[in-house]
Amino acid sequence: MANQTTQPPATAMESQAQQGSGAPLALQRVGANARNQIKVSSPAIHGTISKMQSEYGDGVSPELWWERVEGAKSYALILEDPDARSPSPFVHWVAYNIPADRSSLPEGLQEQERLTEPAGLLQGRTSKGNVGYFGPRPPVGDPPHHYHFQVFALDSELAVPPGAERDDVLKAMSGHVLGAGELVGTYQQTTEPAP
Predict the structure, then answer these.
(1) Residues 134, 55 contacting (CB under 8 angstroms)
(2) Looking at domain 9-21+33-187, what is its CATH homologous superfamily?
(3) Is the pLDDT assigned to residue 53 strictly greater than 50?
(4) What per-residue confidence (pLDDT) applies to 11?
(5) What is the DSSP string of 83-125?
(6) Within its chain, how far is the Cα of 78 from the centroid?
(7) What digits encode the pLDDT tens for the residues 137-158?
(8) pLDDT, tens digit, for every residue of 85-110?
(9) What is the reported pLDDT for 3?
(10) What is the structure's pLDDT at 193?
(11) Which residues contact 165 (CB under 8 A, 6 or more apart)?
(12) What is the mean pLDDT of residues 152-172?
């Protein structure tokens, strides 16, 4: 696999920029023909994403809920910002092999490749090069950016190592998507953060 977990963040970001910049969102790439539409929601996101979930705040991943899909063996989550300048879309979160008996993720998941709660959940690299959730951080003064929390129901677990990049996860998901849906939240930073 390209871009193993030992790759420095700057190199990972450059590699992703070359591979996926200008690409459609994950939902358009592998979920467009899904048989089931999944409703995705969050008690923390009602149109806008709070500063607490942004990198201007605490950078805490939000609680997410989704509808279960019959026959699913696992779920995957990809968070992307298509309004970013480069790479676009900017990948803010990749989580996969979410257990089939789950229909939610709690707030504040740890930023590590393999989680013990929920057991089996793996996380991949963001466009910044870190593993786990990287909250919104649009440039100060930009119009609101749109953050797409995309959830996929899969007919198998993915044979992808921890710390994988979005494109490796999408390649493994191809042909295995039973259902897909998204929640879109916006974030805008109008003032410079305090030093």
Answers:
(1) yes
(2) PEBP-like (3.90.280.10)
(3) yes
(4) 53
(5) T-SSSSSEEEEEEEEEETT--EE-SS--SSSEEETTEEEEE-B
(6) 3
(7) 999 999 999 999 999 999 999 9
(8) 989 999 999 999 999 999 999 999 99
(9) 43
(10) 85
(11) 2, 3, 12, 15, 16, 19, 91, 94, 124, 125
(12) 97
Quick count: other Cβ atoms within 10 Å of Cβ 128? 16
For residue 114, which amino acid is it?
Answer: R
DSSP symbol at 17: H
Please give the Cα distance from 80 to 93 (Å, whole number): 7
The answer to whether 98 and 74 have CB atoms below 8 angstroms apart is yes
The structural domains of the chain, with segments of one domain joined by +, span: 9-21+33-187
Q: What's the pLDDT score for residue 82?
A: 97
Question: How many beta carbons lie within 10 A of that of residue 108, not counting itself?
Answer: 15
Name residue 98's beta-bridge partners.
Answer: 75
Question: What is the three-class DSSP state of 147?
Answer: strand
Distances (CA, A) of 142 to 80, 90, 127, 137, 192: 17, 15, 19, 10, 12
Residue type, 38: I
> What phi and psi values does residue 13 have, to the nearest 5 degrees?
-65, -45
